[in-house]
Amino acid sequence: xxxxxxxxxLHPAPELTLADxxxxxxxxxxxxxxxxxxxxxxxxxxxxxxxxxxxKKPVRLAFIDCSTAERRAHxxxxxxxxxxxxxxxxxxxxxxVTGTLQAPEIDGPGARLDTVVEMRRFxxxxxxxxxxxxxxxxxxxxxxxxxxLVGFHRSLEPxxxxxxxxxxxxDWARETIDELEAMAASGACGTCSSVGGLQALRERLGxxxxxxxxxxxxxxRAGHLRxxxxxxxxxxxxxxxxxxxAFDALEFEPALRCIDLVCDVAFTFMDLLAxxxxxxxxxxxxAWAEGMDEWLGLSALRPFxxxxxxxxxxxxxxAGEGAAFDRYFALAATLAxxxxxxxxxxxxxxxxxxxxxxxxxxxxxxxxxxxxxxVERKRLMGLAPTERAAxxxxxxxxxxxxxxxxxxxxxLLSLADALLQAGHSVVLDAAFLRQHERAAxxxxxxxxxxxxxxxxxxxxxPVLRARLAARAQHGADPSDATEAVLDGQQGVAEPWPADWxxxxxxxxxxxxxxxxxxxxxxxxxxxTRNGAGRAAEAPETQVLRKNGGTxx
Length: 552
Hints:
The protein is 50% helix and 14% strand. It is built from 21 helices and 15 strands. Mean pLDDT is 90; it is low at 1-11 and 533-552.
């Protein structure tokens, strides 16, 4: 950050009143040629052709004290520091406002009047909130967002215990509930129709956080507590020049951004749900957790997301937006309530049969977490998902040897066990060609009281070979399967027992994307009619079982 009078401590500024601030903003608007001014409780933002100039108001509120020039300069510097981590192209510097209230200058001579953050202006219609509202938030942006936050969170250093915040998420959630109760009692939340459930929400969320407390402390000691963003709702995420960036990090209270990483992304997950984008929410959290290896942290996802929904409900109540309050409050209650019976869905099929494509669709449609053997196998070996071992090398032999395969399946089941206990449905995306592997998953489902299903994907061998060749040429898939691997799989694939028929579901994946989507929709409809994970035996299943579980 450039050192200016705004940050060097030279030329102390006179203290400003709110009336002074309003005059200064009006004068700066003329000086900078700003076409509009956006007001927030703590800031005034002047928007010119290609710049945004953000000044803190001289106010002292319950959550921030900007009453002195020194404190406003500090928070401007913090805003610049925090947001350069995720949105460096947007945050250009911290500048001194000099001159007089009637004729101000930016970094001009003379005493400093105040401090301003200089930013690039962007189209508000490119905020993910705006894109979501007009149906323009597609899956490719969700993937880009997840990758952006994985890169950000991986760059952060774990917080030493001396920097752990004194207040925890449950403390903030409880305070939010207290405030909503006070608003309801005073009639200040007159447009909000759902305040009657506050006590039940307090009890359920308090119990959830009490249960999680030992695990969250252990996560802090293991390095999962970091100085994150703190305010990752869709209004603080923007599409910019083909990428997605987080901006407007929470600068005024370190305890609200020095948090568990899952608590940081729970805000985004929750807000996608609140905008009716359930599939995108699960796509996002799967991509983030896989990229971060944060699967076990997702045991806290629902309570964290409920807390985040409460925050947005309070913001809506303060703004008198009753419909928004009701939407966020209802979501908080749903997330805090005991989850429905989870499902364990096990994929099976030869390489190239489309298991991963189906698993991805099912995880989004079910609201489930997808664990991929191709990714977890490489993680165990310290490899990136798309990193390749040279064919025939010692690493390749180890990577796909019997010992590594057993370790991979053990990891999948161990992670699935923890997630099922937390109430999450799980899709296991692996070949599961041997019956003992499938039986171990079915036993886990029984032990955790989860519904169980086996989804078998298949296509003709020529189609499988063509897909593997195309995948190898593209080079972006975690799978290393080759035609030689396919040949070996056909030799070891085992049938499932006849009495498994009620749990077996077939996906004929010879067609295009539309046909695959239709097949997944039929499967979901079947589960809705017949119960999670159960279906009447289809004719194809009878044929497949007679042929060892492989298409004739």
